[in-house]
Amino acid sequence: MRSSKLLAVFLLAAAAVVAQTDSKPAKAPVSFDKSAFDTSVKPCEDFYEYSCGGWRKANPTPSDKSRWGRFNELDEYNQGVLHGILEKVAAPGKHTAIEQKVGNFYAGCMDEKKANELAAKPIQAQLDDVSKISNAKQLMLEIAKLQDQSVPALFRFSVGVDQHNATKHLADVDQGGLTLPDRDYYIKDDAKSVETREKYLAHVQKMFQLLGENAEQATKDAKTVMDIETQLAKASMDRVMRRDPKNSDHIVPVAELLQVAPNFNFPEYFPATGVGSFDRVNISNPDFFKQVNPLIESVPLDDWKTYLRWKVVKTAAPWLSQPFFDENFDFSGRYMTGAKEPEVRWKRCTQLTNRSLGEALGQLYVAQTFGPEGKERTLKMVKAIEHQMDSDIKAIDWMGADTKKQAFIKLQAIMNKIGYPDKWKDYSSVKVTRDDLLGNYRRAAKFEIDRNHNKLNKPVDRTEWGMTPPTVNAYYNAGENNINFPAGILQPPFFSKLVDDAVNLGGIGVVIGHELTHGFDDQGRKFDAQGNLTDWWTAEDGKRFEERAQCIAGEYSGFTAVKDDKGEVKLNGKLTLGENTADNGGLHLAYLALEELMGDKMNLPIDGYSPAQRFFVGYAQIWCQNQTDQIARQLAIVDPHSPGKYRVNGVLQNSPEFQKAYSCKAGDPMVSAKPCRVW
């Protein structure tokens, strides 16, 4: 099973995007921002607006973004730091090998004039290869080649951690091949879904016309793409089902995969990927391969070629000439997310460099911003929160002694990774030139794909990272039982040396507790201390857990994500269950740490706020945000995280500690009549 399925991240990484439209350096965010308050709102009525109303009024969603929050503020600041590094190393002068590589990558990306001169030429070789396909065998070999170039065609193949022996790697095949954000976009018949499909068809048609097709042929080809992707969507497992790791656990001999999907030509596909030999494979969604297998023969070969041409141009469009870029943004940005204009090029190129050569650029970032002392400081906080979880497990009354024993073993085995890797990736084999943007991107992508494939017959290295050091995020990896905090998030508003411990515990303390809780949420609890998919719960304790989890799922399903002229969309409490459980548990653990730290000083105020009140404001203010209705609607379908308002109010209405801190009473909106809590 691929490890990516086992990652529980603190926020939607794709949402951490920049927003300014000029090159002025962004200001560093601050913790406990007094200007963020809206004191006309009572804390017990709506603590989110009380803590964030002033910030939300002063920070409308920028025209080039679909959502804007405190995470984005910090990411914007980090982008400015990275931009300064990249401009320096891209300029002529004496540079180290690492500096030269990332500088050349960035410089090649910034050459907009060359991109416009080349038009579609950077993808012409791929299109030519697709046109030469003459039979089903060649089709699958070409798909292997395109996947190797980071074109997401038909399905996914990767190497991940074996769910039943977490010290080893295992090959995995999985559903894939869609372009719209989720299978539901192709299947649902509500007005918004129908409209989206109409807009998508028009978008695909325009892209084919940019490749030189006339309107009639482009219209026909767009319909072909929609027909194929709709069939792939119907064969795909929905997101809620995929949250249960057991639903993606189908380890079989390779011979069985060949019987399930003979038309995929796996005996020649696998060698074409460059992966080593293997005799076992995990089929994440057997039904997908069973349903798609006959399509490989029944769908005309020319239709498959049309589909592949689409995947080629769609993948490259953000980096081709202006007409391709504009059409891609018009649909994927303006229509799908509500952004009014694209980001400026230097920001897009900074992000692409970070994604493509992240640990090379990360070395330069860490040297300038973090350093070893940052690791030591953060690790101390992590240990304090882990101590509270140990105490909390001892104190809970719904878990029996046998299950508690295993929970302690798992907690003690969790590995903490702080800031940046102890061993950096070696990018020396990646060829980078200043005049080949897409070539650089493909070679960097192939480097990562080859690294993944080369893991197959090697032991799992739990010191590797799944995020780059500048990333404003954090994650728990169930298959490796570790928590990970990149350097990028270890700054205000999450942590600051300029504020008191209460505010820091409300920020980074809750982040730490959140990731720890992921190890024991409805997904994480199904893995043991070594990362194996094992039921270490007694039947009675498992039932008690599920009852508590269902309380949270039901609670969040009652929250409204968006209500506009297209109708009302509620949160999916089952999709967001893991993150909501982690938010509630993380806040509880961090507050316990605050009480132990402050002792009899819990009533000593700062600027009129008690430590408890400052803790809850510190927590609420990391979630201040604004977003468009379009992205709110999309995220309600695809995002396992709740929006900021409910990451605050949804959690605090369950917290007796919060209600005590602000003297909230039964019947107040911030006091749940039926509070939910797992951890």
How does this structure look, described?
- The protein is of the alpha+beta class and 679 residues long.
- The protein has two domains: 3-86 and 353-661, Collagenase (Catalytic Domain) (3-Layer(aba) Sandwich); 120-319, Neutral endopeptidase , domain2 (Neutral endopeptidase, domain 2, Orthogonal Bundle), CATH 1.10.1380.10.
- It has helices at residues 47-58, 70-90, 97-110, 112-118, 124-131, 136-148, 184-187, 191-210, 215-235, 239-243, 254-260, 266-273, 286-298, 301-316, 322-337, 345-356, 358-369, 372-395, 401-413, 437-453, 501-518, 539-557, 577-598, 611-620, 629-638, 644-652, 656-661; strands at 7-9, 67-69, 155-162, 165-175, 251-253, 280-283, 415-419, 475-477, 482-486, 560-564, 567-570, 625-627.
- Strands 1-8-9-7 form a four-stranded mixed beta sheet, covered by helices on one side.
- Helix 6 packs parallel to helix 14, helix 8 (191-210) runs antiparallel to helix 15 (322-337) and helix 18 packs across helix 23 (577-598).
- The longest helix is centred in the middle third of the chain and has 24 residues, at 372-395.
- The chain is globular.
